Amino acid sequence: MIDKNEELENELIDKNESAETEGGVEETDAEETVEVEDEDEEIVDEDADEVAANILKLKSEQVSLENFDWSKYNNKWDVYSKDERDQLSTMYDKTLSTIVENECVDGTVIAMNKREVVINIGYKSEGVVSLNEFRYNPELKVGDKVEVYVESQEDKKGQLLLSHKKARAMRSWDRVNAALENDEVIQGYIKCRTKGGMIVDVFGIEAFLPGSQIDVKPIRDYDIFVGKTMEFKVVKINHEFKNVVVSHKALIEAELEQQKKEIIAKLEKGQVLEGTVKNITSYGVFIDLGGVDGLIHITDLSWGRVNHPEEIVQLDQKLNVVILDFDDAKKRIALGLKQLTPHPWDSLSAELKVGDKVTGKVVVIADYGAFVEIATGVEGLIHVSEMSWSQHLRSAQEFLKVGDEVEAVILTLDRDERKMSLGIKQLKTDPWDNIETRYAVSSKHKAKVRNFTNFGVFVEIEEGVDGLIHISDLSWTKKIKHPAEFTQVGDEIDVVVLEIDKDNRRLSLGHKQLEENPWDVFETIFTVDSIHEGTVVEIFDKGAIVALPYGVEGFVTPKHLVKEDGTSAKVDEKLEFKVIEFNKSAKRIILSHSRVFEDVKKAEDSASKKQVADETKKATKKLKSNLEKTTLGDISELAALKEEMEEQQKKALQKDK
C-alpha cells in the first residue's frame, strides 16, 4: 500500500532520474528549488518544483505521525496495527537529524550552480550557501563533504540558513594549530600580493606566504600566483597577534634534497653538464643542474675581465658547464665556464719577448698600478713606478683610467706563471742619461717645489729629475727652522746645482748660492766691540734673537738683555747692542746690551781714578819737595800738607767704591 506522500516522493525521484539522464543535476536541479542561470535565461522544471514544494510544505509543518490523519491521503493506513505504525514512525524520525543553531556540522554537496551550492546536513530541509564562500576551492563538486555553520533552522521562507565561511572561521585556528603540530599539508587560496610575499586564505584565515617560501628558485613574477590554490605547510604561528606563516617551498625541499643526494653521488670533477641559469648575482651565476644548484664564480665565467656576470650570461639561458669541485657534506658545487675553452696564454705568440712594444686596453686601475689587457685573458701590470721617470710617490689614477688604449714595453714575461709586467716610461728617453751636460754643477735652473721635510725642500727641475735644497742652503742670513717658513709647495724657485749623484739619481741644489756670501761684508761691519741698533724679535729660555741692519740676526743671552734700570728687554723693543763675538764660518753673531752701558761706566770710573792719582802724585811730589826745604820750625806746615794728601787719597777710595 502506497500513501499519497510516497506517491509524491516517487514521482520526484522519477523526475530526478529523468533529469539526470537528460543532462545532469546541474542543468535541471530537480532535487531543489534553486534557480539555474544559463546565459541570462532561467530554466525551471515546473512539475518538479511543484512536487518539491509539497514535500517541503509537509515537512515544515512538522506534523506528528501519531496524530496525523493519514486517511485523507490513504484510507488503507488502518490496516497497520499500532505497533506497526509506531515502528514506521520511529524509522522515519531516524531519517531526520536534530540540529542546534550556532553550531558547526558537516554536510554533503548535493547540487550546485554558478551562484549557489545546495548542502544536505540530514535535516528536514537542505541549506543553500553562496558559491563565493568556496572560491578557495575551485575543484568543489557534488558529493564533497563540507563544514557549515547553522545560522537558523529556517528563515521567513522556511529555508535552512547555513554559512560555510563562518564554520571555517570557527574551526580555522584549531585546524591551523593541528596542521603545525602534525606537520600536515594543507590547501590555501592565494588572494593577493603584499610587501615581501603573498596573502593566502587558509581555513578562512589570512596567512602570510613570504616570497622566499613560494618556491626553491627565485620568483620573478608574483602576480602569476594570485588566484591559485596551492598546498602549504604551516611553519609559524604567533598566537598573540594572530599571525600565521605558511610555506610552499617546504613541501618540495624534501624531494629536492633527495634529488640532490642522487645527483651529487654521480658527480665527478671535470664532468661537463648542461644547466640553466637560475640566478645572477654580482659575484657569480647560479646554475640549475636538474634538482641541484651549482655556482659559477665571476672569475670562472671568462678568461678576460668581467665587471658583472650579466655581460656573459642571461636568465634561463641553457649552457654547458664543467664541474671544478663539490662538497658532499655542504652540497656545494663549484662550476666553470671558461674552462671549456683553451687558456689564452697557451695561444700567445711565441715570438713575443721582453723589450717588445704592445698595445692594450686598461681594464683595472689600482693605486699601485694598472692592468692592461693586450689580448682576451692576457694581461700585464704597469706598476706606477713604470709610468713616469719621476721619483715622486703618485697613484696610477693620475696617469691612466679604465678604458684607455695604451702602448707599453714588455719588461718581464713569465709564460709558466702567466705573468707579464709592462712599462710606459720606457717609451721616453731617461733624463739621467746625459745629466752631467744638461744640469752641470754650478748651472742655474728653475724648479718646482714638490715636498717638504724638516731638513730641506724637494724640488723637480723636470719630470724625472729631482733635487734637494738643504735647509742651510736656503738663505745666507735667516735662521730657518722649517722650509715652510721660506717657500710653499707648488711654488717656483731658482736653484743652482751643487752636486750630482748619478748612481742614486740625486741632485744637491742650493738657493742662497745664487747670491754672493754677505758674511764677507758683514765681517767688516759687525766687528767685535762695534755697537749697532737692533730689535728684539723673539725671546726664549736660552736667550733672544735680535734683528740687525742688512737683514742679519744676532743672538743675546739672558744676562746680556738686562737694561741699565735692571729690567730685561722685551719683544719689539729697539736697543743698542755691542758685538761681543763674530763667527763667519758658523754665521753667528753674539750681542750684548748690558755691555753698552757697563763699558761707559767703567770708562768714566777709570777717568776719575786717573785724575785722583794724578792729584795725589802732585801732592806727594810737593810734600817731598817741601820736606827737603823745611826745618823743624816748619813742622806745622808739613802736618797740614800731610792732612791734605790723606784727604785726597780718602776721596779717591770712596769714588772707587
Summarize the structure.
With 657 residues, this protein is α+β, with helices and mostly antiparallel strands. The protein contains ten helices and 32 strands.
Explained architecture:
The chain has 657 residues and is an alpha+beta fold. Among the domains are: 183-252, Nucleic acid-binding proteins (OB fold (Dihydrolipoamide Acetyltransferase, E2P)); 267-340, Nucleic acid-binding proteins (OB fold (Dihydrolipoamide Acetyltransferase, E2P)), CATH 2.40.50.140; 344-427, OB fold (Dihydrolipoamide Acetyltransferase, E2P) (Beta Barrel); 435-514, OB fold (Dihydrolipoamide Acetyltransferase, E2P); 519-592, Beta Barrel (OB fold (Dihydrolipoamide Acetyltransferase, E2P)), CATH 2.40.50; 599-656. Helix content is 24%, strand content 33%. The protein contains 10 helices and 32 strands. It has a 5-stranded mixed beta barrel. A 5-stranded antiparallel beta sheet has the order 10-9-8-11-12. Helix 1 packs across helix 3 (46-60). The radius of gyration is 60 Å and the shape is elongated. The termini are far apart.
Question: Topology, pairings included?
Answer:
Elements: H1 4-22, H2 25-28, E1 36-38, E2 41-43, H3 46-60, H4 82-94, E3 104-112, E4 116-120, E5 127-130, E6 145-152, E7 160-163, H5 164-181, E8 185-194, E9 197-202, E10 205-210, E11 229-238, E12 243-247, H6 249-265, E13 272-280, E14 284-288, E15 293-297, E16 318-327, E17 332-336, E18 357-366, E19 369-375, E20 378-383, E21 405-414, E22 419-423, H7 435-438, E23 444-453, E24 456-462, E25 465-470, E26 492-501, E27 506-510, H8 519-525, E28 531-540, E29 543-547, E30 553-556, E31 574-583, E32 588-592, H9 594-629, H10 635-656
Parallel strand pairs: 5-7, 15-17, 20-22, 25-27, 30-32
Antiparallel strand pairs: 1-2, 3-4, 3-6, 4-5, 6-7, 8-9, 8-11, 9-10, 11-12, 13-14, 13-16, 14-15, 16-17, 18-19, 18-21, 19-20, 21-22, 23-24, 23-26, 24-25, 26-27, 28-29, 28-31, 29-30, 31-32
Helix pairs in contact: 1-3, 9-10
